[in-house]
Amino acid sequence: MRRELVVLATVVALAGCAAQQKTAPGAQTPGVTDTTVKVGGVLTKTSASGYSTKDAELGAKARFERANAAGGVHGRKIEFVGAEDDTQDAAKGDAAAKKLVQKDKVFALVPVHAPNFGGAVFLEQQGVPWFGWATGPQWCGTRTGFGYNGCLAPKPGAGSQTWWGNQMADLLGGAKGKTVYVQTSDSSGSKYGGKTISQSFQAAGFTLVGLNSALPGAAPPADWLPYVNKIMTSDAGGPPDIVVSIIAGTKFNVGLYSALKKAGYKGVLSDATSYDAAILKDPATAQALEGVIAAPMFEPFESSAPEIAQLRQDVEKVAPGTTLTQHLAIGYWSADIFLKMLEQTGRDLTREKFLATGNGSFHYENAGFGKIQYPKDHDEPSGCGALVKLEGGAYRVAKSMKCFDNVPLK
């Protein structure tokens, strides 16, 4: 009789465990418990050139903290383990992704903001979602990589962005009769960016007079003169109306712009990275970038939009007095899109169901970053962006966030 009671108690206990497992949706999914979802990121916190995206970690944390303060998503709070540093090395990025997935057991990677990120193939093979700034071709054509701005390196025939050229045309009163020269480095992401940005300006009506991708991306050159000479004679022997720099790093742009100004260049200078408040702290750097029109793919911090006021409030709560930067915004909006997708997936959370939501008909609009549509934006950019001008040592909104139709990449 005693033996029968022991067996019965064991059966009841096992049944209780099974029932408990059944009532904990997502319990078998890595990084998911009944009360938490674990995520971590990969950033280029340090690099030989000085380029750093470390502020994206704080941006993501600020957004996650607001979500957690509101009770989380479907009762689960975000457990953010922070971000690994890939030092702008593809192999280290791959190792960082593997550590987060295999050792830390994260559900997803948020944010990923590394120009030479090398973990894309591994994450795709493992079916692990990742969110961030889709600056390179490794983001495109996946089912797991969700750029907050879509795919910036579409394949020929796929949609390519026109917003930068159209915003500039609106700002300058039209593109007719105006010329543009595009300077990139020799990195794959920079070269591909040069190709798509060139088309953006051409689609808006500008005439392309040069595209140079010979600049070494490892470090700024000792002598800028060969590059400056090409630019200053690119428009039938004279300088172009606009010079667009697709180079990752303030040091590069400071060198190029200083050399151009010294050579007498009076036209428009534009890039995607010079919207950075840290620039204003160094008078020499600020002077070199005076007049530059930056092209962020989010609504500028100087905007009066409620979404930007909320961002500022969220960041102030977790890190009072923090200087807002472009990289911070990218981390914030990447986290925001991840949370929206998490919300739409529902309480019964697995990676498969999450990816089915993202790759079903996911559409999200927000004045902070424009709009995103998946699965379409796995293959083309979102088509949204703003312009900011550094003027008199301060930034001002030149053109607020706006979205334009893409055109097929030639």
What does it look like?
The protein has 410 residues and is of the alpha/beta class. Helix content is 38%, strand content 21%. It contains 12 helices and 16 strands. The strands form 4 sheets. Strands 8-7-9-10-11-14-15 form a 7-stranded mixed beta sheet, with helices on both faces. The protein has a 5-stranded parallel beta sheet with strand order 2-1-3-4-5, sandwiched between helices. The protein has a two-stranded antiparallel ribbon with strand order 6-16. Helix 2 packs across helix 10, helix 2 runs parallel beside helix 11 and helix 11 crosses helix 12. The N terminus is likely disordered.
- How much helix, percentage-wise, in residues? 25-40%
What oligomeric state is this? single chain
Q: What about the largest sheet? A: 7 strands, mixed
Strand content: 15-25%
- Summing up helix and strand content along with how strands pair, one would put the structural category as alpha/beta
SSE order in H/E notation?
HEHEHEHEEEHEHEHEHEHEHHHEEEEE
Radius of gyration: 23 Å
